[in-house]
Amino acid sequence: MSREFDIVLMGATSFVGKITARRFAKLLSRQPEAFRLAFAGRSESKLASIIDDLKREFPNVAIPVLKGDSMSEHDMTLIAKRTRVVVSTVGPYDLYGDALVKACAENGTHYCDLTGEPQFIHRMLANYEQIAKDSGACIVHCCGFDSIPSDIGTYFLQKRAQEAGMGQCVDVDMRVKAMKGGFSGGTIASLINIVSDVRRTPSLKKVLFDPYALCPQNKGIKQTYIGKAQSDWVTDQWVAPFVMAPINSKIVMRSAQLLPDLYPDGFRYNEGMLGGKGSKGRRSAKLISAGIKTIVVGAAMAPTRWLLQSFVLPKPGEGPSPAEQEAGFFVVQVHGKTETGHRLSVQVKGDQDPGYGSTSKMLSQAALALAFDLNDDQVGGFWTPASLLGEKLIERLAANAGIECCVLN
Hints:
Blueprint: E1 5-10, H1 15-30, E2 37-41, H2 44-57, E3 65-67, H3 73-80, E4 83-88, H4 93-96, H5 98-107, E5 110-113, H6 118-135, E6 138-140, H7 148-163, E7 169-180, H8 185-200, H9 205-209, E8 230-231, E9 238-240, H10 245-258, E10 268-276, H11 278-299, H12 302-312, H13 322-327, E11 329-338, E12 343-350, H14 357-372, E13 381-383, H15 385-400, E14 403-407
Parallel strand pairs: 1-2, 1-4, 2-3, 4-5, 5-6, 6-13, 7-10
Antiparallel strand pairs: 7-11, 8-9, 9-10, 11-12, 12-14
Helix pairs in contact: 1-14, 3-5, 5-6, 7-10, 7-15, 14-15
């Protein structure tokens, strides 16, 4: 594409947006001609403040700003027409994301974001998938902690299993082994918005609880969902529900249908969070399960929702300091069993907290992959990180984002 910019970061004034802006600026400080970048947002004064802060840290970097309201189709169209890729940190996406996805789909502009909202993705697919295919735009949702470790981890497992001559993994179990760092205020706001949406529109439950809701073919075998603390059938530990499993599982299932040569018919996938071994592990798993239930049930009722938002949960725009981000980490393990009974396990490890530090690095690398790693004949449409970017993204994450994939056995 012949466009003025390679990448525009929309929502650069949000908390995660500021972190992502710094990621891009740091890359440009090392290679000023590597890519053409602009920041976009609703407030020119806030954008100018971010540029001033970055100028002090990276004096050799000059980044233009574009004014645009995410609720304005006119503004989003003007921005989409000027760039090859838009990367969005404007959430909750269900409230603020429609106009930008529409503009990118209509104008052949590639797009990635951090959404973890299945109802939003479901609506975007219904409204704009064919338009994106016709224009050549590649739309890739869920390019942060939800759902890159799950999606890329499972892809990496399937590739390594087949390279070793084991065949395709038909049963895959993802387990969060360890993590340090809380969820972002934007993630919490999205979760509360999902609960509110379901209260207003009960039919959305079908989208939220159907593992195939985002798949090209909305059908398949029954999937297992870990809904309570229980003894794990994969490890010798206790396992609890993982709060991101509902969206991660849908993205992985979509990848499975978009990559039929890599994933078998009858593919089964589930996620959980490990609590540990013995009685201590059991208590830990039960506490994790109870905490998730408290947030979900509390978010459904106005008085407790207000209490959670006011005194317990992080607010949008709030987050940890840079030092706290760097002190965080995550370790995700993906265990597979092939159709012939072979077993293989892989690990995805991040060197910063999952909700902010690692997420901003994953998102920025996904945007760069969209800008520079696609083939000229790439078909447009709605893709997943694994199905579109695959090995190229794995290489970028290892080289530039502190995200390592490795085989465990």
